[in-house]
């Protein structure tokens, strides 16, 4: 494998190919499930019919002309890269962002890597006494993210391909309204799955309080934490005091503000509130109080902030 030639054929920086080669080395990968079994697995993973059809159409069968040697190498080595960090809970890009307009093999390469790791991470879950209900609910975030990416006309996936390696390594678990990430603290994430009511949040936190000591007793946690634009106190200028977001904010003691490296809070707000990064500000919808708050704040020349907060378990 010549890194420069492989990178050129993939249309990605050679540094990205070198990184995959360095981290994956000759470590074992994992096989994809049989294509005949794939529709049932995609259904369990909440993948919508349109996305499932594309994934099946691009399936890397041995004689597929879509799958060049470079693509097959990247699929095998990116799967090995993620598998090598099984049990990890830090951010882990599985490989370079690909030119996804070149077809389903390019568009869904990291989806195939995720599918190859489903049984691997479920075995990891079972080794820790975690039931199938939590496993499948957690892993079904794949379908949710593919649906969001479709709504965003492909603008969402470069972030999502790294986010989903947490699920494929046993680093994050969905219980009720929130997703909970292992680490120094239990990191909270808010998926697109309904109102963020105090009752739903309480139930999810209570589930996590029981879950982590039972399944990861060697990882003592004393705090929940969250890093998000949702914790920006500026939202209180626009939302009523009884708004779910404001009540969620009140749980946290905020750390002093520091400009986060690699995160543009204005972009992240648009990503999550509108699922749109390219529509002009004046044409964005204003149907909800949150949408109006975001647009009015940005239209006034102000910026949102990514804030980090914690509270005791």
UniProtKB/TrEMBL annotation:
Gene3D superfamilies associated with the record: 3.40.630.120
Domain N-acyltransferase N-terminal, chain residue ranges per copy: 38-170
Domain GNAT-like C-terminal: 179-311
Keyword line: Acyltransferase, Transferase
GO molecular function terms attached to this record: acyltransferase activity
Pfam entry (one): GNAT_C
Protein name in the entry: Acyltransferase domain-containing protein
Organism of this sequence: Micromonospora robiginosa
């Amino acid at each position: 494998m010549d890194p420069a030639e492989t990178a050129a054929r993939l249309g990605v920086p050679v540094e990205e190919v070198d990184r995959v080669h360095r981290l994956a080395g000759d470590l074992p990968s994992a096989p994809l499930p049989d294509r005949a079994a794939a529709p049932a697995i995609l259904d369990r993973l909440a993948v919508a019919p349109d996305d499932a059809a594309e994934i099946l159409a691009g399936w890397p069968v041995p004689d597929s002309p879509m799958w060049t040697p470079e693509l097959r190498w990247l699929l095998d080595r990116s799967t090995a890269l993620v598998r090598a960090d099984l049990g990890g809970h830090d951010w882990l890009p599985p490989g370079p962002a690909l030119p996804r307009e070149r077809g389903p093999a390019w568009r869904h390469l990291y989806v195939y890597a995720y599918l190859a790791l489903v049984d691997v991470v479920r075995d990891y879950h079972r080794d820790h006494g975690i039931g199938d209900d939590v496993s499948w609910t957690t892993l079904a975030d794949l379908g949710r993210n593919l649906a969001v990416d479709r709504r965003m006309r492909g603008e969402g996936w470069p972030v999502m391909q790294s986010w989903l390696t947490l699920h494929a390594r046993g680093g994050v678990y969905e219980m009720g309204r929130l997703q909970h990430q292992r680490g120094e603290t239990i990191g909270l994430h808010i998926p697109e799955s309904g109102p963020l009511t105090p009752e739903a949040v309480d139930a999810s936190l209570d589930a996590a309080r029981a879950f982590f000591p039972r399944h990861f007793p060697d990882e003592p946690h004393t705090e929940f934490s969250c890093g998000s634009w949702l914790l920006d106190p500026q939202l209180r200028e626009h939302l009523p005091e009884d708004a779910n977001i404001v009540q969620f904010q009140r749980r946290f003691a905020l750390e002093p503000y520091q400009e986060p490296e690699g995160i543009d809070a204005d972009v992240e707000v648009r990503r999550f509130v509108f699922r749109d990064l390219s529509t002009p500000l004046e044409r964005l919808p204003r149907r909800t109080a949150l949408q109006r708050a975001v647009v009015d704040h940005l239209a006034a020349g102000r910026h949102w902030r990514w804030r980090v907060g914690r509270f005791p378990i």
